[in-house]
Amino acid sequence: MSALLRNYINGVWRESESGATFANENPAHRRSELNRAQASNAADIEAAISAASGAFRVWGRTPVAERQAIVARFLDVLAGAGEELARVVSLENGKTIRESRGEVASALLEGRHHLQQMSVFGGQAAPRAEGEVTVWEQFHPLGVVGVISPWNYPMNVMCRKALPALLTGNTVVFKPASYTPWSGVFMTELLEKAGIPKGVFNCVTGQGSTIGNRLIQDARVRAISFTGSTEVGRKIQTLAAADFTRTQLELGGKSALIVLADADLDAAVEATVKAGFGCAGQWCTSTSRVLLVPEIAEAYLDRLLARCESMAVGEPLNEKTDMGPVAGASQWEGISAAIAKAGSEGARLRCGGVSGNAEGYYILPTLFDGVTREMSLFREEVFGPVLAVSTVRDLDEALQWSNDCIYGLSSAIFTRDLAAALRYVREIEAGMAHVNIHSGFKTPALPFGGWKESGSGPPENGRSGLEFFVERKAVYLSSV
Ligand code: NDP
Questions:
Q1: Which residues have a catalytic role annotated?
Q2: Which of 222, 256, 288, 422 has a 20 to 30 Å separation from 115 between CA atoms?
Q3: Cβ(374)–Cβ(217) under 8 Å?
Q4: What pLDDT shows up at residue 123?
Q5: Span 445-474, mean pLDDT?
């Protein structure tokens, strides 16, 4: 019998009220069972919200230094368990072990950033005299917040949301994605080891459409930080509006990479491979559209095709693997359907497609060229290792095509022309603009969020990473 993952509610590991569970599959091996997780229902989420609500009375008043000490201990245990955690992520998500180690490193970097930011947070709020009146701005935690995370960066995204929430004095109900419950439970165990008081952090696994909805609709939950699809984000925003629940939504993308005639082609090709096929194309800031000017189109494509053919696709735990399987059955089906549709709409398949390796959910690095603006491959998010390559006249047309999209998460340009680069930075409609760097590059000091249908609410990281989780109060103090 496979191991059982339990919910963590009010400091106790417990099974769901109904006793129902679901299988956690390793996507490298169809129909395998790594372990089973709780298929929780409304009663479990209710218990978690009640626990978080009770714990808030103390945690919300706990001195910042004490909250920081617990988060610092958590980051230490996370660093110590990094290799084990990377293995867990690879086993249930399918990304390569090298990519999972990268995810752990990114979570640590961001976590340390938030810890340090917490020390300066509120510095601008120092009291000052306005005539006879002393005034200042005071920050208060919101209360209970819901964290709903995706499976593609199951531990990094959880940290990026939960650590700022905890540092600012909120209590958390965390719902991991159903493809990756183990990473969520593992992270919760690390928080327990770090000494998080009971009820302050609660983890409940189960279907988003049932328990996720329930979490949003409870008026005690004052904010929802969500990363996932635009479709679910829209539902969350609509439900949250009923109680004016605050939302931070990081959603889908269809990021474009532009290559101009004077670009360093080798660097552009490497950036395309990294951002197009990293994590099997399942990162929100993936490059999924490539826009080439005619002067370099053929040379660039020749080099990119050669790189695609050289990639080792296979077992995620093998150190030599460049790309693992996609995350599971529904992902594989959706990507396979998008590949078939692209072909039927007239795009030209240059390499890749569905892999012949039926042991796991494998898709090869896939490249279509001749993609026009009308095709679904140009417009719809595939969320897999599938690149849509188009040839455009010049920078004008490249910008028009890039911006002709409902999404606006990330983007990149490769050029040595400073004026062209600055024009792109000014005109691209996206939350992230990269010049001669791949579209997934980020630092926690800058905001991580999208424009248009790629996001809503204050972005994660940067200044708003902490600010999203607080209420503000303007205080006026007079001695008479
Ligand atoms: P989903 O939107 O399907 O799921 C995300 C999370 O929401 C999961 O925990 C899911 O639970 C839960 N959920 C599903 N339905 C509901 C609901 N009705 N109410 C509340 N919660 C719900 O996205 P994916 O997990 O498939 O993630 C891929 C998407 O995430 C892509 O579109 C990608 O672009 C986007 N993404 C965006 C990022 C960003 O920062 N902008 C970063 C990473 C990904 P369950 O798993 O149980 O269904």
A1: 250, 284
A2: 222
A3: no
A4: 66
A5: 97
Distance from Cα 228 to the centre of ligand 1, integer Å: 3
Instruction: Give mean pLDDT, residues 282-297.
Output: 97
pLDDT of residue 122 exceeding 90, the answer is: no
In this structure, are residues 75 and 167 in contact, taking their beta carbons and an 8 Å threshold?
Answer: no
- Note the pLDDT tens digit of each residue in 418-442: 999 999 999 999 999 999 999 999 9
Q: Whose CA is nearest to atom 5 of ligand 1?
A: 228
Best mutation site among 25, 158, 207, 229 for ligand 1 pocket (most ligand atoms within 8 Å of CB): 229
Ligand 1 atom 18 nearest Cα: 209
What is the CB neighbour count within 10 angstroms for residue 458?
Answer: 19
In the chain, pLDDT over 70 holds for what percent of residues? 99
Query: Rounded to an integer, what distance in angstroms lies between the CA atom of residue 352 and that of residue 36?
Result: 33
Backbone angles phi, psi at 16, to 5 degrees: -70, 155
Cα–Cα dist 402/384, whole Å: 19
Average pLDDT, the chain: 97
Here the tokens at position 43 are 């009663």
Helix axes 64-80, 156-167, angle to 10 degrees: 160
| For ligand 1, atom 40: residue with the closest CA | 250
Name residue 284's amino acid: C
| CA trace torsion 371, 455, 107, 433 (10° rounding) | 50
Residues ≥6 apart with Cβ < 8 Å to 371: 289, 342, 347, 377, 378, 388, 389, 390
Give the global pTM: 0.97
- Write the single-letter amino acid at 256: A
- Name the DSSP class of 463: T
Helix (H) or strand (E) holding 257: strand 255-259
- Residue 124: per-residue pLDDT: 61
pLDDT tops 90 at residue 2: no
CA atoms within 13 A on the CB side of 29: 11
- 114: which residues sit within 8 A by CB, 6+ positions away? 71, 163, 164, 167, 444, 465, 466
Angle between helix axes 97-120 and 82-93 (nearest 10 degrees) is 120
Look at residues 360, 311, 371, 313 and name the one whose alpha carbon lies nearest to residue 338. Answer: 371
Tokens of 449: 């969020």
Nearest CA to ligand 1 atom 35: 228
> In this model, does residue 413 exceed pLDDT 90?
yes
| Confidence check: pLDDT of 285 > 70 | yes
Q: Residue 125's pLDDT is what?
A: 73
Residues written for the chain: 480
User: How many angstroms separate the CA atoms of 362 and 360, rounded?
Assistant: 6
Among 302, 306, 301, smallest CA distance to 290 is for: 301
% of the chain with per-residue pLDDT over 90: 97
